[in-house]
Amino acid sequence: MKILEYEDRYLEDVKDLLVELEEYIISIDKDGLDQLHPEYREKIAILDLEKVKNNNGKCYLAIEDGKVIGLIMGIIIQFDEYDYLDYKCPKEGEIIELIVSEKARNKGIGNFLIKKMEDYFKSVECEYILVDVFAYNKNAINFYNKNGYRSRMYTNIKKVNYD
User: Fold this and answer.
1) In what order do the strands lie in the sheet with 58-64?
2) Ranges of each domain in the chain
3) Which fold has domain 2-146?
4) What are the tens digits of pLDDT across the range 110-150?
């Protein structure tokens, strides 16, 4: 297995992995709000890769036998002109995607990918790294906790009943 920076020749594999992740999220979504829109496969990878490019980010791929078996995407957070009013605005990296294909899990690939992204963030002098994790994704929460991440914010949701 090798880790390398994104190359266009792997775009279809990246699309497949992002669909695999979304299908997993749908399967654990207790609220039933996530969906796999018909345009998801063709658009989400392009949108994510554009976000990476436009925000001084990186996309790293885990490759085995010529196929992408894992990926991580990260960006440098851009603050707006008013963020400083209630936040110190340290330079921060954000992990926007991380997935290892189900058939390649439990081999340490996620750890290699996160280390590669953390090394990039350190190289550009980020003080913090953020990642949003779906609350029902206990596997991801445990993974990040084992890698030294902790919760800072919670998003709460309540369905409105019209009785």
Assistant:
1) 2-5, 58-64, 67-76, 92-100, 128-131
2) 2-146
3) Aminopeptidase (3.40.630)
4) 999 999 999 999 999 999 999 999 999 999 999 999 999 99
pLDDT (tens digit, 9 = 90+) per residue, 28-87?
A: 999 999 999 999 999 999 999 999 999 999 999 999 999 999 999 999 999 999 999 999
C-alpha to C-alpha distance for 32 and 43, rounded to whole angstroms: 22
pTM above threshold 0.85: yes
Q: Which amino acid is at 100?
A: V
Query: In angstroms, rounded to a whole number, what is the distance separating the alpha carbons of residues 79 and 81?
Result: 7
Q: What is the DSSP string of 36-50?
A: --TTHHHHHHHHHHH
User: Which of 112, 78, 113, 110 has the alpha carbon at shortest distance from 92?
Assistant: 78
Range list of β-strands (E), 9-91: 58-64, 67-76
